MATE family efflux transporter
Amino acid sequence: MGELGRRLWSIALPVLPVLAAEPIYLLVDGIVVGRQGPEDLAALGVGALVLLVLGTQMNFLSYGTTARAARLHGAGRRSDAVAEGVQATWIALSVGVVVVAGVHAFLGPLTRVLAADAEVAASAADWLRVAVWGIPCILVASAGHGWMRGVQRVRTPLALVAVGIGVSTIGCVVLVPGLGPAPALGLVGSAWSNLAGQLIMAGGFLGALVLEHRGFREHSGFEEHSGSLRPRWSVIVGQLRLGVNLVIRTASFQVTFAVATTAAAAAGVDSLAAHHLAQQLWALYTLVLDSVAIAAQSLVGAALGAGLASQGRALARAVVVWSVGLGVGLAVITVLFRDPMSTLLSGDTEVAGRLVVALTGMALVVIPAALVFGLDGVLLGAGDAAYLRTSTVIAALCGFLPVLLATRHFGWGLAGIWWGMGVFVAMRLIAVVARVRGDRWLVLGAQTPAGRPSEEARA
């Protein structure tokens, strides 16, 4: 495997179940809710999309914090790396409160835009009315993942996520159909289960951050730069500077995914239900690939923070090899098991038939997507967020979105959606390969390029 491969997998393997836990839960959630009927499953698809968009739109709390904390950790400044987590948590709490208020204010119009059927839109609004309270928890957990990955502490998040997802899964299985003495809450039972698990996870990440802070205070005499739990505006501004690029990049994903949902909805309730299941399975696939990308963020950031440009490039080569290997494995599994997977995930034969179409597209796209994810991780670890922002926006607006609009207009259904995904991935692949082959991303020093008032010398 080699030394670099072992280092990648020492981080990727504990990260993998953490990343996979949420989409696995959502798949279980979809299976349980799907037994209530395709209308409830379609409503869950709309509501889950809104929650996914809101949660992942702030993914700079994870990715940006990892990049900044990893460089500081590589430079031997662990206490400052943890301090990045403190400030990211303040951002998470502040933004979470604002988002909850905003969603409640526009709940009805939001679900009506995404669902062509009025009954589905109303059910989605009922689900979101409860589930949206988990947004602050999602953001706090995202910040926690960020600083822990940055300092290469990857086992604690695994335990916290296992407990939270376990509570959510048990709650869903019991509350949706009403097992034993539990009331049959239907779709809303899914939302309450989701919220309970998120509260537990967020509480665990907050507790871990406080304990880490206390350890530094006792060890270093409560130095202001590393020991304070108060907001520090200079650090927050630096995080937001990097975060703006990541938010724009993520927004381009979300706009196209939202349009994809409307294209599926226009093809009928069965297509929308199948699209929801395919979306959750694709989320699982991409997070499996992201385990290597996150390991790359942590290790590349630490290498560049320590001034080791050659090690950063060697890590990039190792990431390519392992990412492509994972992509090939997922493609083979999808081709071999697409029919039984479709039957297992859906209790309705029409939905299952449409899901087969989506799985075929998924098998074609996942190999180049694997390489894109791995090299994204390398560039995110280097803090090269501005380049990723621009290349992703161009691919989304000039590649994915036109195909989706044509799909909705001509009625191409799920096949058209996955052709659009293929164009999107191909354009991004060209961009990241071209970038990593050059030297512009190899910026050395303890601070990410986006967090500096002026750029340091390049390697």
Q: What stands out?
A: The chain has one domain: 3-451. The two ends are 28 Å apart (CA to CA). Residues 3-451 form one domain.
